[in-house]
Structure formats: structure tokens, C-alpha cells
Batch of 3 targets.
Target 1
Amino acid sequence: MQKLRTQVGIVGAGPAGLVLSHLLHLEGIDSIVLENRSRQYVQERVRAGVLEQGTVDLLTQMGVGDRLRKEGLVHYGIELRFRGRGHRIDFRELTGGKGITIYAQAEVVKDLNDARIAAGGQVFFDVEDVRPCDFDTSEPKIRYQKDGDEYELACDFVAGCDGFHGICRPSIPAGVLTEYEREYPFGWLGILADAAPSAEELVYCYHDHGFALLSMRTSQIGRLYLQCKPDEDLTQWSDEKIWQELQLRLASDGWKLTEGPVLQKGVTGMRSFVVEPMQYGRLFLAGDSAHIVPPTGAKGLNLAVADVQVLARGLTQFYKTGSQDFLNQYSQVCLRRVWKVQRFSWWMTSMLHRFPEGNPFDERRQLAELDYVTSSRPAATTLAENYVGLPMEWS
Ligand code: APR
Ligand code: PHB
């Protein structure tokens, strides 16, 4: 068995793991990132693409914002469309100048990998059978295999940044964590299309047939979604049928949806999920390994980035002063934000989707809610301030 040592062992090279590794590097703290997929796979995986202002600011401060600032599309509003009419929520006006940036998660991951490697960082891809151990002692380890050889990475702390299906959360002994979960009776069928986006800003649409979303990756590539069954059979959805349904749900007077070749399609289920606490001994869970939000609020990546900022602060304090005060507060500080973001994502989801068990009362209530949000300034402000990202709170 080959032995290695680092200060912080990080499982998972998604946004959480890579941002954490780079933040620690900037504070002079060593880490090794262990990822079970290939670099190409994590850089090409189609995921979300909306960055809060705070996420953009952090990436910029970390020195990984150059391409993001050049290629990202800055938006200062979104449209809510219902009964065939669009209503703009003006973020700039409602939040004192804040906006969001459209830049694919895959590009963020590429930029972070490049930055880690340029700085001599250690990110090991294609590792197998990762096992965090002894994290209830002061000498945690991560065992894993690579190219058939067994390794043991000794570290001071383990960061579980390995997503919802990762190994870190299930490694914590039974009975320690409490899980809070809600599954939604629908999913999203998403396409990436070689078609210039038909609107400048994102369009969230409520329709009798279900929710639809017009988003984008670049000024040439569209990203569109349709509410579907959670286990929708993609083989039943030809490209033509997908466009037909998008045309129908998004239809609005005087507006045209431009079609184009479908480059990729997939179905994602939707759930809200949180574990408490987000720490056990010297194992800290961050990002999707600790919580999942439905995508309607575009919050998954941003919440992962918020977690690792709190974790990096705690680890920095520990290495600079020996104090574990901030580390001890990690879970509590993160969970305050997590639950507010859960609330917002649940609210957006509930307002905009058709529930199979819904009745005409619920539909009228949803339309009244959309009418209220788009006609009352205080109501629009609560949407706007959550969408652009709540301020970081450190206690
Ligand atoms: N060993 C090593 N790596 C693992 C393991 C394992 N057992 N299990 C999963 N991983 C890796 C995954 O391959 C992935 O690259 O951990 C990484 C987790 O990354 P993400 O799933 O992207 O999660 P996170 O970094 O928390 O990012 C937040 O926000 O937009 C949402 O869900 C979206 O990915 C996004 C997330
Ligand atoms: C996306 O572009 O993938 C996207 C945008 C907004 C959302 C969810 C996903 O709410």
C-alpha cells in the first residue's frame, strides 16, 4: 500500500471540491482532490449555468474569473410568463444593481481545473473505491485505488464534496444524521440546442401542460426545459415533439421561438433534500453531498460554493491559530443559508409547476401568486433578492 499525506483530503472534483481546494491553496493550505470520474467527463457533464453575483465575485477574487467575465452573459432580470403573457422581474432595480451571470457549470469546472493544475495543485482523476476512514479521530485517512494499486491518504480533515450519490455521507455511522426530504411528482426534460436563444433573458413559464423554461449557454446555444414525468421515457420524445411542446407552452403574442438541432437531451428528477448536521468528527459535507435543491431557483452550484467558503474560513482559522471555533460552527452557519435556499427553490417550484394531484383551486391560486409577484413591488423584491443570491452570513 502506498502512503500519501496532505492537510485536507477532498473527495469529488465538482464545483464544491475544486473551489475548496483552490481557496485553501490561496491560504497556503495543502489539499489533494480525489475524483472517481475522468477529467474529460467532469468537464463535459451538462449541468446548470446560472451564477449568483457572489459566486462570480468569489471566482474573480480567486483568479478564475477571466473567461467568465469575457464569455459569461450578464442578465439583470428574468421573465415570468403565464396566460401567454410575459412579465419582467427587474433585478437591477429591485436589488440595487445586482444581476446574475449565465456561464455553464462545465466551464466553471474547466477554469478551476486549469487554475489548480497551473498552481501545482493535485487533482487525481479516475480513482476507484474511495473510502474515508477514521474521521472520528484526529488522524483521518482516505483509502482508494488507482490503476489497480491501493493508496492511503493521511490528512487532518476530510471534505466530502462528492455530490448526492457520493460515498462520504453514507460513511457516517447510522443515527448521526437526520435527513429531510421531499420528492416532486415531476421531472425536467432538458435539451441543449444549436439555436440562438429567442429571448435575451431567461423565461420561466407556467402553462396548462406544465412548466417550461427558456435558458441558454451562450448567445448561440439554447438550453430549454419542459416539465415531464419523473421517470419520463426519452425514447417517446423525438426532437420534433420536444420543439412542438416548447412552442405550445412558451407561446406568447408577437414572440417567436427559434428552433435548431438538438445537441443533447436528458431527464432529471426533482427533489429537496438536507442532512443535519453537515459534519461528523473531522468529516465535513459540502454541496450536493449534504443537500439537493430542485433546479427551479438555479441554486445548486451557488449553494455548494457558499458551503465551501464557510469551510475554507474554518480551516484557515484552524491552521493559522489552532482554534476550531469556526469549524465547530460550520454546519450551523451553512444550514441557515441552506434552509433559506431550500425555501426559495421549493417556492419557485410550487408556483410554476402543474401538480398531477392539483385541482382547479390550486391552479387559480398559482395564477394569483404569479399575478401578485409580477404586480407587487415587495413581492417581486423577495424573488429578486433570492434569485441574485442572499448575502453571505458568517454566524
Ligand atoms: N469518489 C470520488 N468522487 C466521487 C465519488 C466517489 N465515491 N462519488 C461522486 N464523486 C464525484 C462526482 O463524480 C463529481 O465530480 O464528486 C463530484 C461531485 O460534484 P457535483 O455532483 O457537481 O457536486 P457539487 O460539487 O456539490 O456541486 C454542486 O450544484 O448545479 C448543482 O447538482 C449540480 O453539480 C452541481 C451541484
Ligand atoms: C440552466 O440554464 O440550466 C438553468 C437555468 C435556470 C434554472 C435552472 C437551470 O432555474
Target 2
Amino acid sequence: MSIRRSKTKVLVDGGDPQETVRVKGLIGFVDGQTTNPTLIARNPEVRQLISSGHKFSTKEELDEYKKIVQAISPLVGDAGVSIEVFADFDTTAEQMLAQSRDMFAWIPNAYVKYPCTHEGLRAAQMSVREGIRVNMTLCFSQEQAAAVYASTKGSTDPVYVSPFLGRLDDRGEDGMDLVRNIKKMYEAGDGHVHVLAASVRTLNHLLGAFALQAELATAPSKVWEEWAAGSVHCQKRILCTKGQTSSATS
Ligand code: E4P
């Protein structure tokens, strides 16, 4: 049974193509995927190499990231695959841009992830001018979302901003409030920035993102599995109530 689409696009947060295949099998479709270096390090093949004592050079890390992203790319729809640049406090916008030019060429449906920092925003501004699609990650405040809007104005492709629900909740704030406030703030805008609910840890986060009509939501496979199980149960109940045969529901 394929689950009815909500307005919110479905993205898998992970670094294992097999997981994406599994979620796709459960839901019937996957619109996109978000990755980051931590998720890539959890990929089963990568873990096996690490546990056998293999030490990755920087080039090998990137090659592995590219290989995994290339396997995921054809599995997902038009929300693309987000690939994160390696950045710390000292990384300049120019250094991020150099990485992103390379990463953007890995697959036809890439979004490059930059942090919502001063340098990340500068990198995003330069990127959209070159036609590189961007996902602004690690968004913890409405001010950061406003800065994303201003620095990417004029982008011909949708720009993603990723408020981090789970991490805000972890520090005693309400991540869902941030999604609500950003959506409200963008109502007056031109619609070029799409809200991607991220750091989703629970089914409630997901349902909240749907209710607020976030354009996209990314969640680990276990949360999608939970959602799919609940949705199939609901749809079967609705179809059964309408008097359809059980064979029509499976
Ligand atoms: C998505 O783009 C993020 O990488 C992801 O949701 C991070 O969330 P977490 O590290 O808080 O789990």
C-alpha cells in the first residue's frame, strides 16, 4: 500500500542507501535525502572498515562520501540529496565554496549544506549566484532564517533552511516554535526559501512539521517506519470502514 502524500516532502536523514530503499518500500516514495559526515560514518561499510583498523585519508573520506551519495541519488525524487561541506570555525566562505563546487558536480540532484554562520551565509550567497542549490543547516533561530532569506534572494532554485528541532528541544527550547515562527515570517516573502524540518527525533516532531506545513521534513528511517506503520493502519481502517475488501488494502 502506498501512503497518501502530505504537503511536506519526505526526506531520509541517513548515510546508507539500503535504508533509503527500505523507507521507499514502506512509504512508496522518498522525495529526498539529507546526509552529513556523522551519518556517513555510520554507513555499515564505513563502520566495517573503521572497525578493521582502516584509517581514512581526507581524500578517501571524500571518495567514500561521493560513492554513497551517488548510490542514493537515483533513489530519491525532486527534493534531491543534501551533501554537507566540511567546516569548522576557521573555514572561510571561499573554502566552503571550493568544496561545494566539487560536491555539487557529484550528482545531478545535489543540494550543498552550509552552516547558518557568517561564512556559511556568504558561501550561500556566492553559490546561488553560480546556480549551486543550497540547504542552510544548523538553524537555531529566526534571525538565522531571516539572514538565509536575505543572503539568497534572487535564487532561481528553492533554497532550504533547516531548523534543528531535536537539538533545540535538547537544550530546553521548543523546536516546533521555531518552525512556526519561520513559516509565519516567510509568509510575507517571495517563497524562495523552503523550510526543512531537521534533527527530527520523534513521530511528534514529524506530525508537528506536517501540521505547520513545512515544505520538507527529514527524519531517520526508524521515525519514517513508525509513521508508515501508523499511516497504513489508519488507511486500512478507513478503507475497511468504507466496506472495501481486505485484499484491496494490502
Ligand atoms: C539534516 O540535514 C541534519 O544533518 C540532521 O537532521 C541532524 O540532526 P541531528 O544531528 O540532531 O540528529
Target 3
Amino acid sequence: MALSVLSAASEAVPLVKTGGLADVAGALPAAVAAQGVEMTTFLPGYPAVAKAMGRKRVVHKWDSLLGHKARLLSGRIGDHKLLVFDCPAFFARDGGPYSDSKGQDWADNWHRFAAFGRAAADIASGKVKGRRFDLVHAHDWQAAMAIAYLKLASDAPVLPSVMTIHNMAFQGYYDAAIFPRLGLPQSAWSVDGVESYGGVGFLKAGMQLADIITTVSPSYAAEIRQPEFGMGLEGLVALRGERVRGILNGIDRAVWNPETDEAIAAKYSANSLNKRKANKRAIEKAFGLEKGDGPVFTVVSRLTWQKGMDVLVEVLDHLAGIGGRLALLGSGDKAIEAALHEAAARHPGRIAIRIGYDEALSHQSQAGADAILVPSRFEPCGLTQLYGLAYGCVPVVARTGGLADTVIDANPAALAQGVATGVQFDGVHYHALRSAIDRTVALYAQAEKWREIQRNGMKSDSSWNASGRAYADLYRELTGKAA
Ligand code: ADP
């Protein structure tokens, strides 16, 4: 029988997405299937998930799971198996997965995701008839408690577990007062269990108890040993050092491929880059930019401090002043949104912004812009620079985390060897970003060189092949089972 993995995540494309986690959780089943691993994805039953599921079967019922009635639904997500935690008291709500329609976090998030973890542990430990798993893979703090319940409150033999950190900034840290309501034994209240700085740490618990911790790039795996990136958990990362690995995310080529992308005006490949022009015209129109052959930058991002968007705002006058244009798609911090609106008003036709979330426009932006700016202060892996590489939209990135690992800076040595794929800069501040933009504009003016950088990026392999193999190897190592 194939090695069977339960992958617990709070979001997965195409059903529910707020960020990169969804892209990864959605792509992983196919990536490891190619290696002979059968992965079942376990998701909370948000209204959108229940609706998109189509045919479903009830395969288990809980009379009370941390206080509420729940059911387990079985269905499919594309070609792969899906289990959904149908607990209306926690998940049948309008709004986002973690917050209401005003962006306010749900006050009972600890309860919702503890219950989700408890359910995952029940499934993994064989409580659901006909379902048998060899390993549990939990993503981020929302699924981390699966490992805690499995290790600390299960009477079944404990399965091997993997805890993947997609972003250390989100830890699921709660007041100690919730501890008695988690249904864990008193012994779990310890630094070896769920206790963290006097409260309950969901991600911390998963990291403490998992057999292996992974994060989504080798550089980030090293960075989180430092306070600046570890955000309070650097000590635990160092303590578990041997068990912390970095596996880069891939991109789903079925979704992100300019040769087959139905969302863009003109399909193209590395050998037909001239066709990109139609896509450039299309985004000029979509964003209301003036027409022209000068460089168009794009940004597709959460508008937050992590993403360096405050620094981006500072350089916009310069960017417009040297003949650049910007098409920005994103949403987030209200102060940043307001500053972007002001910049757009100062530079009509040159700086254009679209506040909101728009999947099709994100594809069109990668296909039509010349370069994508990713000035993140920290970036566990980052996906938009990988999409940029695949689309010949040259990534201009801060040298951190996965950005450092996936983009080859166009320095003189890389240019001489013909291997450059983008532009990197050190330190997220005005002067560093400004000079990276200057460097990009200068490269863009050298048409031959620019084409080579675009082609190098498009030919670099950002697919899931290598990462799917790495995860499958890890599962085999932990289970002692050949896939
Ligand atoms: P993070 O998960 O930290 O937000 P990533 O780069 O890993 O950052 O992933 C972000 C994902 O969300 C990418 O698929 C990106 O294209 C998408 N995205 C971000 N903002 C928007 C937006 N406003 N509209 C459409 N897609 C967006």
C-alpha cells in the first residue's frame, strides 16, 4: 500500500486562499503523488469549501468536539482525496477564514483551530473507520495542535509528524486561561508541551512535538535561529536544530504557465517574448497607465510591513521620476493603502493601484509587467517572485529567505556567465530599493541583456518536481516505509 499522509491545513487552492500557504497545500498532493505518496488534504468546512466540494459523504460524527457537534465529510479536490471538518458552530460564517468581513480576527480562533487540530488527531489515530494514515503533516499554527493532540492526548500509537512553518510571524499565541478548555492532560502545561512564555503557543507546540520541522526555504530555515526572524521561538529552533529543514516551495505549472494561461491576453513562451507586448498593453489599460515602451513594474502583495510596502511608498516619486511606471495590486494596511492612493494621485498614468484581491489580474500583471518588486523584510519562501521568473517578469527582490534562494542577482559575474535571473538588494530601506530600481531600469535599457535575464528565469525550474521529491523522501525517512 502507498505511503499515506494526512495533510492538515487551514487553506488550500482552489477552495480557499488568503496567501502562499493555500498555493502550497493545494499543490502538495500532486507533487508527492508523482513520488508514490497518497496525500489526503484536511480542511475546515468554511462555507466556500462546503459549496465547492460537490459530492460529499459523511464519514464520521462527533457529538461534542471541544464543545460542539461536528461531522467529517469526504470528497475530492481535483484528483486528490479531501476530508472536511464540518463544524457549523466554528466555520459556517461569512467573512474570511480567520477574520470577519471587517478584517477583525474571530475572538474564538483558538477554539476553532484547536478543534480542527483535535479532529485531525482523531482521524490520524484511526478513529475514523476505513481511514489509515502513516504520517501527519501539519501546516502553520492553525493545524499545529493536531500534533499536540496526537502526542499528548491520544491513546493510539503515535504517528510520525511533520510541522511546516510557512510564516513564523503568525504563531497562534493565546492566554493561559484557554488551557483548561483545550481538553489536554495537565501534563501538557509545560515547556515540553503547549506552554510558551506563560501562554499557550499553537505553533510552538507543533514545533516542540513534531518529529521534523520544515520551513519553506533553506535560507529562512537558517534565519529563524536569530531573534529578528524567530520572533521569540528562535531558542526552540536552535534547540531542535538537527530537526529543522528547509524545502523550497514550487509553483503549480498547471496554474502558472504563460504558454497555457487562459487569464492573459496573449500566451507566450521564452521563445516568443515579443508576444508579451500585448499583455503589457492589456495591463496598461486595466490599470489606467499611460501607454509606452518604458519599464512597467508590478507589485502583487499583501500591503504590510513584512512586505516592505512602507518603503515602496517612499520610492514611488523616484520611480515615476526616472520614467518608470507601476501597476500595483494588493490590499492590507490602511495607512499604506492611503499613501499609495496619494502617490497615484501625484503621478496619474504612471503609478496605478488596485486595492483588492483579484486572481486573474495577478496573472495578467505577471504577464504584462517587465519586473516585479518584492522588497520583503522577511520572506519564508515567497511565490510572486517565482511566478515572475516563470512569466519573464524579472524579480527585483530583497536578499532574504526564499527570495535569496530563488533569484540570481544580475551582478557582473552572473551577467558574464549568462546566469542572472533578477535583481537582489540588501536591506529594506529607501536607498537600497531606489538603487535596485535604478539598476533594473539600466538593465531594461539594454534589450539583449534584459531578454537573456527574462529567458534565464523562464527556463529555471521552479516546478514542484524537486520539492515533491524532498517531501516524499522525508516521509519515507520518518515512516521507514517505501512509497
Ligand atoms: P504570503 O503568503 O506571505 O502573502 P506569498 O508570496 O508566499 O506571500 O504568496 C502570496 C500569494 O497570494 C501569491 O499567490 C500571490 O499571487 C497572491 N496574492 C497576493 N495578493 C494578491 C492580490 N491582491 N490579488 C491576487 N493575488 C494576490
